[in-house]
Automatic annotation (TrEMBL):
Keyword Hydrolase in annotation: yes
Pfam families from the UniProt entry: Alpha-amylase, CBM_48
Lineage start: Bacteria, Bacillati, Actinomycetota, Actinomycetes, Kitasatosporales
Protein name: Glycogen debranching protein
GO molecular function (one): amylo-alpha-1,6-glucosidase activity
A biological process from GO: glycogen catabolic process
Domain Glycosyl hydrolase family 13 catalytic: 199-610
Listed SMART domains: Aamy
Basic and acidic residues compositional bias, start-end: 506-518
Keyword Magnesium attributed: no
Length: 744
């Protein structure tokens, strides 16, 4: 067998110095291309010289030697025209007569030299990074790879250029005419402190909804349907956080197993709404459909936040397909290793965008501004945001990306949520992002899960998490709402599965149950999976009430996952990223079960309680100090004895915690300048497996208390009016939350 070095030499010799597609250039005489303009990037329909309608095409391709614009008619016949104008590394031209609906792509010429990072191959039709719509499905036959995918020596396969034409096998960009000024739209502009976020998959939320017409299920129009909007309004959430809706592609290993990327964290078009979620068509109609969805949600008072994936693309590593950026300027768009054949991978997905490059930073910020100004969205959750904050190698909170966002007049005004980690060295950055940013707080998730499964050694961690995580966020002017509190997310168990399974059950993913985390911090309440044991089923329902009540009474911004409020299950699958089926879709029949309807009712009641009481959604951290002569403080912690906790109590093993929130000492003023006052509340959380007696604190904290929530009760629709006197010893049932309002 030959050595790797000998195989690489053979591969180099096979590479032609210049690319020729099927032996011909395919340029079509007679296609007029006027000079046009280098800005804006992308394909923009407009009126050109002498009032002639057409489209201006502009593509950044810094190291390219030539760029061909490829136009496709309804039959798929291709017409090519060279873009001869080059301004500041942007190839551009105006083509008269090209109208909205026109499908197009690019072929970019340059040197094939993977050893220095050059992967130009004009045999491959490339998607415009600025395409506003995409028509067609991404499949991954060998022809869409810039290298010979099935080369016998895989260790050098990425160096062997594939000269087969990919155009018949890849989607095309679509010219879109956008003249919508959003004059009739009214953004809710919900303050951060008042927000309740609902994580939603466009398809999964609507696919099985009986109130949505069949032809609209799984689409943007389905999410805009009154039946879907009604659920959001009844629940009381203020924002939907949509799993990725940028155009995405499916990975080869999933397609080979007959699966697909359901979640969509594999972006390839940062300006295009994913065509698979459109009911109206994919020749630009998806753009209008998405806008109508946003308008419908805004009209209901619901903001739209997009989960965006700017850290990597669907082109994967050196053995991945050539779909767009890799063929436009591989070393200009991606972080490469010292061995330029290889990609720096801080994402676990094969590649990482080189965000410190000005043109890459421009691509991202242009995309963000487009979704705000032209598509109407209200904010973004950034997947693996630490990867975007890396300078050359390390995570840097003064990085170009964060600096640009901070000064941008559009982006600094929208909601910005970081997933504050990546998979690279030093990538865990919870609590480190600067002001303007909120963060997914996984320390909140872990503490709440551990408390309710009895795995915390003491209650110190719970104290911080319940009161806004001041240990993480009380710096630099940040506020309690910098913490996005969650117990579950799309990635991991659903809430019902969290109390029904201790081990992942991901066999349906076809990866031998190796995928997905093993650190679930779950407790199955005595049996793995579904059971007929009514005692266990009742305990699980109680644990669900405990988890939801804890989340919605905590200081910070709560985030729910669609379906958790009505007992959605994935059968123990904690990584359902490839389950575009009943495993991943919301089951609306659950609401026909009185037990799950009761859980929905409790969730809606807790959200309504949160909206009514500003003490539950503070805009400033607690001081813990007395603000009046009677010694009443804005926040106090109590033991079961009714005494304030000492330093020793915080370190002692305990399963019970009492938290007092004073409504008399809320910082800030209302819109008219008046002080903000509210009721005061005592929350008692008890995770022990036996009831405990709790002495209710007396003056100055309270004279009397009224029970508002008792999670030990199955029926939560109309709680009885139960009052207690300060100093009274009340029995807190095993594994329960009591919320008591001070009434005197």
């Amino acid at each position: 067998m030959s050595s790797a070095a000998e195989q690489e030499t053979v591969a180099k010799e096979r590479v032609a110095p210049e690319a020729v597609v099927n032996g011909a250039s395919h340029r079509t005489p007679g296609v007029p291309v006027w000079p046009g303009a280098p800005t804006p990037l992308g394909a923009r329909f407009r009126t050109g010289p002498d009032g002639v309608a057409g489209t201006n095409f502009a593509l950044w391709a810094g190291g390219a030697e030539a760029v061909e614009l490829c136009l496709f008619d309804a039959s798929g016949r291709e017409t090519r025209a060279r873009l001869t104008e080059l301004t500041h590394e942007i190839w551009h031209g105006f083509v008269p007569g090209v109208m909205p609906g026109q499908r197009y792509g690019y072929r970019v010429h340059g040197r094939w030299d993977p050893w220095t990072g050059g992967r130009w191959n004009p045999a491959k039709l490339l998607l415009d990074p600025y395409a506003r719509a995409v028509d067609g499905d991404f499949t991954l036959p060998p022809e869409v790879y810039g290298h010979v995918r099935d080369w016998p020596q895989q260790q050098v396969a990425d160096t062997v250029r594939d000269d087969r034409d990919s155009a018949p096998y890849v989607p095309k960009g679509v010219v879109v005419h956008d003249d919508d000024d959003w004059a009739d739209d009214r953004r809710p502009k919900t303050p951060w402190a008042d927000s309740v976020i609902y994580e939603v998959h466009v398809k999964g939320f609507t696919r099985r909804h009986p109130g949505i017409p069949e032809e609209l299920r799984g689409t943007y129009a389905g999410l805009a349907h009154p039946a879907a909007v009604e659920h959001l309004v009844k629940l009381g959430v203020t924002a939907v956080e949509l799993l990725p809706v940028h155009q995405f592609a499916h990975e080869d290993h999933l397609l080979r197993r007959g699966l697909a990327n359901y979640w969509g964290y594999n972006s390839i078009g940062y300006f295009a709404p994913h065509a698979g979620y459109a009911s109206a068509g994919t020749r630009g109609e998806q753009v209008g459909e998405f806008k109508r969805m946003v308008r419908a949600l805004h009209a209901a008072g619901v903001e739209v936040i997009l989960d965006v994936v700017y850290n990597h693309t669907a082109e994967a590593g050196e053995l991945g397909p050539t779909l767009s950026l890799k063929g436009i300027d591989n070393r200009g768009y991606y972080r490469l290793q010292p061995d330029a054949r290889r990609y720096a991978d801080y994402t676990g997905c094969g590649n990482t965008l080189h965000v410190v490059q000005p043109h890459v930073l421009r691509l991202i910020t242009d995309s963000l501004r487009y979704w705000v100004t032209e598509m109407g969205v209200d904010g973004f959750r950034f997947d693996l945001a630490a990867a975007l904050a890396r300078s050359m190698h390390d995570v840097d909170m003064l990085s170009p990306f964060l600096a640009v966002i901070a000064q941008d007049p559009v982006l600094r005004r929208v909601k910005l949520i970081a997933e504050p980690w990546d998979v690279g060295s030093g990538g865990y950055q919870v609590g480190a992002f600067p002001p303007l940013w909120t963060e997914w707080n996984d320390r909140y998730r872990d503490a709440v899960r551990d408390f309710w499964r009895g795995a915390l050694p003491d209650v110190r961690e719970m104290g911080y998490r319940l009161s806004g995580s001041s240990d993480l966020y009380a710096w630099g002017g940040r506020r309690p709402y910098a913490s996005v509190n969650f117990v579950t997310a799309h990635d991991g168990f659903t809430l019902r599965d969290l109390v029904s399974y201790e081990r992942k059950h991901n066999e349906a993913n076809g990866e031998g149950n190796r995928d997905g985390t093993n650190d679930n911090r779950a407790w199955n309440c005595g049996a793995e999976g579904e059971t007929d044991d009514e005692r266990i089923r009742a305990l699980r329902r109680r644990q669900l009430r405990n988890l939801l009540t804890t989340l919605l009474l905590s200081t910070g911004v709560p985030m729910l996952v669609a379906g958790d409020e009505m007992g959605r299950t994935q059968g123990g699958n904690n990584n359902a990223y490839c389950q575009d089926n009943e495993i991943g879709w919301v089951d609306w029949e659950l609401l026909e079960d009185p037990a799950w309807q009761a859980l929905f009712d409790l969730t809606a009641r807790l959200i309504a309680l949160r909206h009514r009481h500003p003490v539950l959604r503070r805009r400033a951290f607690f001081s813990g100090r007395a603000h009046s002569a009677d010694g009443l403080r804005d926040l106090a912690w109590f033991t079961t004895r009714g005494t304030e906790m000492t330093e020793q109590d915080w370190y002692a093993p305990a399963a019970t915690l009492g938290m007092y929130l004073s409504g008399r000492d809320i910082p800030g003023r209302d819109e008219r300048g008046a002080p903000i006052t509210d009721d005061s509340f005592l929350t008692v959380l008890h995770a022990g497996d036996r009831p405990v007696n709790f002495v209710l604190p007396g003056p100055p904290w309270a004279e009397r208390y009224e029970v508002v929530v008792d999670t030990s009760r199955d029926d939560q629709t109309d709680p009885p009016a139960v009052r207690h006197t300060a100093g009274e010893e009340v029995t807190v049932p095993a594994r329960a939350v009591l919320l008591l309002r001070v009434v005197g």
